[in-house]
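Appendix B. Worked example

We walk through a single record from start to finish. Start with the input: the chain for D-isomer specific 2-hydroxyacid dehydrogenase, Papiliotrema laurentii, length 373.
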Amino acid sequence: MPTIEWVRLEPVHIGDPVSTSTLLVAFFIECLFHLSLVMTSQEHSDGAKPRVLLLGRNHADQSVMDELERVADVYILPPVEQPAVSAAIGKMVAQHGPFLAVVILYELIYFPWVFCEEQMGALAPETKLYVLPAAGYDDADVEWIWSTGATFANCPTEVGERTADGTLLLLLATTRGLTTHFLSTREGRWRDHSIKSLNWRTKTLGIIGLGSIGIKVAQMARGLGFRVIYSNRRRSTVTDEFEFVTRQELYAQADVVVLMTPLNDETRHMIDKDAITQMRDGVVIVNTSRGPVINEQDLVDALESGKVLRAGLDVFEKEPEIHPGLKASRNVVITPHVAARTDDLLVTCTNESLYNVIEFIKTGSPLTPVLPH
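Next comes the structure step. The output line below is what the pipeline stores for this chain.
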């Protein structure tokens, strides 16, 4: 059975002069630490087990926690505001480290916790595994993690399945004009025949980025009757179910363009005025990958001109801000980065994260490592 250990950390010395806001931040840190609950196993005192640090609120199934606690002493650091993250991590390391593995729990993957030297430097070089409960990891400084000799793992399975479902939702809504019909009907216009609705069985869907999530989307779209093509840097080695084309061929053929690509220097603003010009008139664009792969102003211009019929967007360039032109358009379906969010996601994502840690402790390798390029 696990025990509950109260954490008592010594106050941080703050030199004079200090601002009221600085004092409040320091006071907030201390209050959190004085109330922090650290979950440890009964065997903690013999030092035989590695230590694992969970950052945020734990939503794992108890059976998974029990399995983790059989192989590790588990510490939980509750959320703190962004200016206090580095100090909070440093205190945990000083009083309870070193930690073999660190997991950012799902609620905090975008703000304020980030795997980077500025926030997590106190963990290195002893920490050997960093786990992020998400498929995308552009916010994590994986180069820094690798430079410390550590392994990085993401959690693509649970998030991936649900992201594919969320992508399908936007695909259906945009191609059939669901939101446009909804607004028109609410405004008193019954059965507005000017609203275009696409027949999936006669249309081509092009996916840019046919990874594991893209394959799921492609399979569902094919089930609806779409012809499916895709463009990657190279032909998929995982599946030969779908037609591989160049980016330019995809733009020329696709009635619907679905973006499933990671964010990097090559893909940032990949969809801009030039790319949209190469697409078919009346194209539909769906994006559940990362917001900055689209130049939002260029997309707004294309929506206003009619070049782009509709867009379904779950991600945005400057989240949580959304371009006013997108918010104002009747032809844009917007969801607030929740394509993967379902009632069980916090639990299943946390479970997947912890299984990565358990596997790493047992074998030296997590279940889903991200390897250096």
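Two observations about the output. The mean pLDDT is 87. The first strand starts at residue 3 and ends at 6.
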